[in-house]
Amino acid sequence: MRDSRTGLWAAGSALTAAMALVGALASGASAGQQHDGNGEKAVPISQVVGADDLRKMNEQRPLVAAASILAKAQEQGDYEGYTGIGLQEEHVTLWWKGDLPEPVRQAAERARGTAPVRIVAAEHSLAELEDASEVLQARLEKDPSLGHSVKIPTDGSGLVLARDTTSTARTASAAQARRTVDRIAGVPVKAVSEEPLRERSRVNDGAPWSGGAQINFDGGACTAGFGVRDASATYLLTAEHCGRSGNRFTNPQGAYIGTSTKSSDPHDVMLIPTNSDNFMYTGGPDSDAGVRVDGWDHVFPGEYLCQSGITSARATGGPVCNIKVLFFYNDSEDLVEAEQMNGQTVARSGDSGGPVYTASASGGAIAKGTLTRSAGSRLGFQDFYTATRDFGIWINK
After folding, report:
1. Angle formed at CA 370 by CA 367 and CA 373, multiple of 5 degrees
2. Sheet of 269-273, strands arranged across
3. pLDDT for residue 60
4. 366 vs 169: CA distance, rounded Å
5. For residues 74 and 82, what is the distance between their CA atoms, to the nearest angstrom?
6. What's the burial of 397, exposed, middle or buried (CB within 10 Å: 0-12/13-18/19+)?
7. Which of 127, 163, 198, 137 is nearest to 376 (CA)?
8. Alpha carbon distance 238, 267 (integer Å)
9. Model confidence, pTM
10. Who contacts 138 (Cβ-Cβ below 8 Å, separation ≥6)?
11. pLDDT at 301 over 70
């Protein structure tokens, strides 16, 4: 289950079984530095991301900084009244049930020095809604006709039940489902109709290996997420469903990258020990264009991001951007869901494990997570913070 921290929503395990895995087919160096070993040149992210998408990311930077102050205070205290943190158009909202603890009040005052912060009373805390969500998820596993996932709105108003009406209407009407789930959950439940997300999975990279590059394994191909390290070694971070621990990875030409060792099946993240760096490909499949990854940060609902999976790069010639974070799941996979706001296809088979990121103040990128699932314009990805908790890693430099 996700920590009570930054989530706008949380969703149930039945959804992750239906989202398409995009699977098989801190600080760092500044942008503009030479990519050691291969001769690629890192360019400013302004040459990679469209002007309007980059503007949205840059405008949100003070909001993200303020939200991070609030998130840190909540993580340190693990307070029961916490409900959620979200980015609005021009301010950050903190939803809270009951009295605000003094350390959180002080954090809000500090955050207001960076961006406007509003504190809004919530009807239910995140912990209360997570408990109700678990009860409802258990019922969905026994009776999938009721729906495929449970989500928690960041305002603490209740639960949202997602139903794929094309398949569930035959066995349970919306009215019947609503009456049933209201009784089970014990809190207000709103039903919505949407397609479940499904799993998804450049082409001649070399050591040091970089994010956004195609990585091959027995039976398929995925995308490298980010070059990372812990206290003793360097790795590529990617999706665990791209090959599981113990798989041998190469580039498309057969050059050996490494054999995966550390992995988390529930969180769909995996480390491949290898010589890596903090360069990230962002151009087409035959391009060496890319940017430097300057560090990582938390993910916040309302935030705009990009993704640079290899298959989408073939289809679009570059990254897919204008992806807005919607909510966090609270099931075993602990993913984040987002949506491409122009209705474009957000990810394709072969994009799995690829980098999800935003722009940094220095002209590079900030790592936010790695791809796992998609359905049309909706994306499911694992946030970098979860990988950090699982493996004790940070962006390599």
Report:
1. 145
2. 263-264, 269-273, 234-238, 226-229, 394-395
3. 96
4. 42
5. 7
6. middle
7. 198
8. 11
9. 0.80
10. none
11. yes
For residues 315-336, average pLDDT? 87
Q: How far apart are CA 361 and CA 92, in angstroms?
A: 19
d(CA 267, CA 375) in angstroms, rounded, equals 19
Residue 239's identity, in one-letter code, is A
Report the share of the chain in percent with pLDDT over 70. Answer: 83
Region of poorest pLDDT, from 184-188, 239-243, 246-250: 184-188
Summarised one tens digit per residue, pLDDT across range 149-176 is 888 888 999 988 888 766 544 444 556 6
Under the banding of pLDDT at 50, 70 and 90, the label for residue 5 is: very low
pLDDT tens column, 7-47: 433 344 333 434 555 554 533 333 333 444 444 578 999 99
- DSSP collapsed to 3 states, the chain: CCCCCCCCCCCCHHHHCCCEEECCCCCCCCCCCECCCCCCEECCHHHCCCHHHHHHHHHHHHHHHHHHHHHHHHHHHCCCCEEEEEECCCCEEEEECCCCCHHHHHHHHHHCCCCCEEEEECCCCHHHHHHHHHHHHHHHHHCHHHCCEEECCCCCCCEEEEECHHHHCCCCCHHHHHHHHHHHHCCCEEEEECCCCEEECCCCCCCCEEECCEEEECCEEEECCEEEECCCCEEEEECHHHCCCCCEEECCCCCEEEECCCEECCCCEEEEECCEEEEEECCCCCCCCEEEEEEECCCCCCCEEEECCHHHHHHHCCCEEEEEEEEECCCCCCCEEEEECCCCCCCCCCCCCCEEEEECCCCCEEEEEEEEEEECCEEEEEEHHHHHHHHCCEECC
Q: Are 224 and 258 in contact (CB under 8 A)?
A: no
Spatial distance between the Cα atoms of 110 and 115, rounded to a whole number of angstroms? 9
Q: How far apart are CA 379 and CA 213, in angstroms?
A: 20
d(CA 382, CA 371): 6
The rounded mean pLDDT for the chain is 85
As a whole number of angstroms, the distance between CA 169 and CA 314 comes to 37
| 269 vs 89, residue with greater confidence | 269
Q: How many beta carbons lie within 10 A of that of residue 183, not counting itself?
A: 10
